[in-house]
Structures are given as structure tokens and as C-alpha cells.
Write a structure and sequence with these properties.
This protein is mainly alpha-helical. It has seven helices and no strands. It is found in: Nucleus.
Length: 129
């Protein structure tokens, strides 16, 4: 229901939508496991919000979307470099969350996901950290 309200609001706003609306829509789509639409909403937020890097919840959500596509869809990647670039984006998003908010409520989960991604990339030293 909330997603439908956001969609209607965006359509009626005729391009005059606050960036935070796209961030919230991305969160809702992520909760519904609609990863393509979550990524689209997050990308709109990213393009409209100049200081997106200060929003830990946005970076966390974006990191989860990247993690989903790269941790569970490695076989779908066209080339190994596609997989590695996606992993780097997920790693970067998660590291930025920890940098701007070390006490983020999901910090332990972020550390776990980072450890898994570093292990897959055979960066065992970083994985242990």
C-alpha cells in the first residue's frame, strides 16, 4: 500500500519530487525484495541528492541491492570483471556506512557481508578483519 502511495505521488508531482521520496521508495522495494525497482529508486535518489554519502540508511540499502545481485547472481554475470565491479560497489557502499556511522544498527551484519565478499575475492586478510 505504501509503495502504491509513493508511486502515485511521484506521478502526480510531475518531476518535482523530493529526493528523500526515492530513498524511502527504494527501502520499501528492498523490503519487498523487488531488487530492480529498489535499485532504480536508489539511483534516482543518488542522482538528485548531492550529499547522498551522508545517508547511512541509503548506503546500506544500496549495498544490500548490490550484494544481492553479486552474491546470488554470479552465474548470470557476463564476465568475471562484471562480477568483480559489482562486488566492489557493494563493498564500497558497506564501507561508507561504517565510515560515516560506525554505530549503525546493522554494523555487525555489514561486517559479516564484507567478510564473505572479501573471502570470495580471496582477500583473506581483509576477510579476517
Amino acid at each position: 500500500m505504501a509503495v502504491r502511495c509513493y508511486d502515485v505521488y511521484i506521478l502526480k508531482a510531475e518531476g518535482k519530487v523530493e529526493p528523500e521520496v526515492f530513498c524511502q521508495l527504494g527501502h520499501f522495494k528492498l523490503l519487498l525484495e523487488d531488487y530492480p525497482k529498489a535499485l532504480s529508486a536508489y539511483q534516482r535518489y543518488y542522482s538528485l541528492q548531492s550529499d547522498y554519502w551522508k545517508n547511512a540508511a541509503f548506503l546500506y540499502g544500496l549495498g544490500l541491492v548490490y550484494f544481492h545481485y553479486n552474491a546470488f547472481h554470479w552465474a548470470v554475470q557476463r564476465t568475471p570483471s562484471d562480477a568483480h565491479s559489482g562486488q566492489r560497489r557493494a563493498i564500497k557502499a558497506f564501507q561508507e556506512v561504517l565510515y560515516i556511522d560506525p554505530s549503525f544498527s546493522r554494523a555487525k551484519e555489514i561486517h559479516l557481508r564484507l567478510g564473505l565478499m572479501f573471502k570470495v575475492n580471496t582477500d583473506y586478510e581483509s576477510s579476517l578483519k
